[in-house]
Amino acid sequence: MTKKPKLGHDPFKEEPLSFIRDTRADRPGKAGNIGNIENTKTRPGHGKQRGRPKGSGAKDRDKWKRATFIVRRDHLEKLKAMAYWERLTATEVLDRALETYLKRKTIKPIRSK
Question: What tens digit of pLDDT does each residue of 33-82 get?
Fold first, then answer.
């Protein structure tokens, strides 16, 4: 009785990942993947630094200042709910609330150092 020949090959007798080959040279007209730089589009402002934007984003930026405050959770939830139901932003609701509160107050200016 003769053994049937194997149809495949033994992967353990070859070097690891020897089945992967570089196909960049197979493309007609281009040697490798070097010539693809002309396909990329240059975006305006591409060289600008990314990250968090500076400023408030308001149209009249000289009137607004970005600030961070810690508030109670229940007040924050009410503020967000009011903004949702009034179809406003949380900034607009907070601005209206502060405006109403500060309207009734007489405030002495702080001495500058």
Answer: 555 555 556 666 655 556 666 665 667 778 888 899 999 999 999 999 99
Distance CA 27, CA 13 (A): 31
Angle, vertex CA 81, rays to CA 76 and CA 84, nearest 5: 125
Residue type at 87? R
Angle at which helices 73-86 and 90-103 cross, to 10°: 110
Tell me if residue 59 falls in helix, strand or coil.
coil
Locate the domains of the chain by residue range.
67-103
Yes or no: say if 85 and 93 are a contact pair by the CB < 8 Å rule: no
Name the fold adopted by 67-103: Arc Repressor Mutant (1.10.1220)
pTM of the model: 0.47
Q: With CA atoms as reference, report the closest residue to 81 among 90, 69, 68, 73.
A: 90
